[in-house]
Amino acid sequence: MALPSVNQKKISFRATKPTTCPVCGQKHFKEEMLSGSGRLIAGKLTPELRRLYEHNKKWGRVNPLDYAVQTCPRCLYSAYPKDFESVTPAELPGLKASMAHRQNLIMTLFGKLDFNENRNLLSGCASFILAVDCYHLRVADVAPTPKKAISAIRAAWFLDDLFQDAPYRPYDKARDFYYMEAAKLYRKVLELMQTGGEPIDAAASMLGPDLDNNWAYDGVTYLNSYLTKKYIDQLAPDPQKKLALLDVTKRYLSKLYGSGKASKSKPSVIIDMAKDLYDEMSAMIDQLNAQLNPPAPA
């Protein structure tokens, strides 16, 4: 069992009791972020409901998302903490068999990473990519689909950060892939909320998508619409299918916007963003309708 490294800047600490990986049996010390002392300087909220954090002169780069996913340093099995040790006998063979795939995936994207070391932008990003990969192999009882959706959009955020720091690396291609994954997954989450195919309530406390404000089901509805609009050309290249997808997505969004107007308890920031997005989608639908149904010549 590797000993935890020491963080000289005191951004994080290690659990005193080790965790045993349920997949490979390796022991490791879970890392947690310390709070207080001005470590976090909150910046603006992006249209993707991401909270940005300003660079801290004393502590450097600090982002609580780095520590959101627990990862085994040996086999790279990854999950959100409450799911980490709950691997069932049915899940175990797939998670064991895919160890080499996980290791090759991370080596290809980032080179050699040591998850015994303190988290940073690279390992934080890798943890979300690994979470998407591992939740593909989890049973419905743990609500894997919303957790894959959350992990995919967080992976895209971090990959974009990496691309801004190193535009000569192909992080942008991986970023776009995970944004597309998120777009598909958020749509599926909304469908599951209607059909009950997974116990979505099992993920309600962590729907985020960031950590400072859990927008919960409103966030899922909004992000489904935002990502559908952003990637509509890739999701539905055919104009007729594009129109149908936008129309369904707009109906979901209208419920969020309508509930915000009816209830003063909803945060105005997400309702305002939902209204702007609703107007933008309405304009896109009008444009497509005009394209598909041109006026008859005089």
Which labels suit this protein?
disordered N terminus; mainly alpha; 2 domains; 298 residues; 10 helices
What does this structure look like?
The chain is mostly helical and 298 residues long. It folds into two domains: 203 residues, no CATH class; 56 residues. The chain has ten helices and eight strands. The protein has a two-stranded antiparallel ribbon with strand order 1-4. A two-stranded antiparallel ribbon has the order 2-3. A hairpin with a 5-residue loop joins strand 5 and strand 6. Helix 7 runs parallel beside helix 10 and helix 9 runs antiparallel to helix 10. The longest helix has 25 residues. It starts with 11 loop residues before the first strand and ends in a 6-residue tail after the last helix. 36% of the residues are buried.
